[in-house]
Every structure is written in C-alpha cells, then in structure tokens.
C-alpha cells in the first residue's frame, strides 16, 4: 500500500515579502555592525600608524601619511644627552617599583588570605577605596612634605617608595584572590616537614600564583613607566629624570613641539612595555588562576 505525498502549496506572496524584509534587516544589521567595528578600529589604529611612520619622516606632521624615509631623526635623538639616559632612569624606577610592589603585596596578600582577622575584608576594601579616591595627585602636597622631611627629594628611592605606596592597595586586592585559590593542604604538608611560613610562601605558594605575580609586575611596571607627575615634582636633576619627564622638554627654538624628536622618542619609549607584555603573555597567557589544573 503506497502512501501519497501531501500536496504542497506555494507560499503566499505576503509571507515571501515578510521573509525578504527580515533577511534584508539582518544583512543591514550585519553591515552596520562591521562598519562600526571598522571605524572604531581605524580610530584607534591611526595614532599607532602615525607613531610607526613619523619617526622615519624628515618632516612629520600631525596627519598619518607615507613617510619620506630617513634616519636623521634617530641621529638627532642620539645627540640629545638626556634621551637615552632617561630610558635607563625609567627602567630603574619601573623595575624597582615592580619588585617592591610584588614582594610586599605577596606578603600582605598571603597574610590576609590565611589569617582570620576581625574586619579583614572591610579593611581591604577600605584601602582599595581610599587608594582610588585619594590618588597621587590629590596627596601630592603631603607626599612632597614627607619626602622633604626624609631627605628623599631628588632621590630615585623616594620616587620608588611613593609610587609603590600608591600601587600596593590594588596589588594586594588582586593577589589575595590568587592566594585564596591555592589549596591549604599543600601548605600543611610542608609544615609537617618543618617548613617555616616564609619557606611555605616561597616554595609552595609562590610557584602556584606565578601568573598573578607576573600580572602585578607587568601592571606596576607599566604604571610607573608612564608616570609623569611624581618624578617631575620629586626629581630635580635632569640626569635622574625618566623618559616621561624628558619628553616634556622636546621643543624647537621657537617654542613649538618638535614632532620629529617626539615621534622618534615615543617609538623607543613604547618598545620596552610592548616587549614585556609579549613576554609575560607568551609565558602565562594572562590566565587569572593559579598553577593548579582545574
């Protein structure tokens, strides 16, 4: 016994028209979305294109264009006695601050994670809130007076201490989450064999939270690398000024910004942070968890 197939009727014209309008709307939304993303990408890419091309242009302007290739801008930059030295000063300040912030925040975060103190969470959130409200700019007068009383004016150590104090609350807040995610059974096993608290932190906890430490180190380095105000106010000698302060002095004899020198120095200024970011990203991939497989 054979079954006859059901009769098919052509879709009404109104249904086809509605389906066509819906498809057209979908296409328009897709085109609009990609157009918006392209414009947004161009908006952020143009300054980078200018930074990549202007150092090699003999007469750079404020617009991004194909450069007339030259290396004279780099020769002019090398003739500046403070340019390359300022990059070294920035490296010292950023690396010193990063090391101090990582060490102090790791110790504080481990203590806050393992010791149950009354009002511990409230204290942590209060420190984070105050560090966000009372920024370095708002507290510059008391910080300057404190540095003056401690004879830390025109001292790299003074700049490192001031910058580290501003970064520590956020670093402790971030690292505490990493510390909370490490199993306490590992620490208990180490204590059974006679390990001290510092040995437990160094040999057990630190290897598990290395991605967090790398993130804090990179974040601290980048924050100090681009800081202008605090080194500008606390350092007096041009020989100790970092790159962000020295760049402020790149003007022509007529008082106009020297675009060729600024662009060339900016290109060199951005290279260390980019390389550090790529190094940490390739090593850890910015996984916001510890070393335990999940």
Automatic annotation (TrEMBL):
It comes from the Bacteria. PROSITE patterns: ABC_TM1. Its main location: membrane. Keywords: Cell membrane, Membrane, Transmembrane, Transmembrane helix, Transport. The keyword GTP-binding does not apply. It is a multi-pass membrane protein. Residues 87-280 form the ABC transmembrane type-1 domain. The chain crosses the membrane at residues 34-53, 92-112, 124-144, 156-175, 212-234, 259-280. It is found in: Cell membrane. Belongs to the binding-protein-dependent transport system permease family. This is Carbohydrate ABC transporter permease. It comes from Streptomyces chisholmiae.
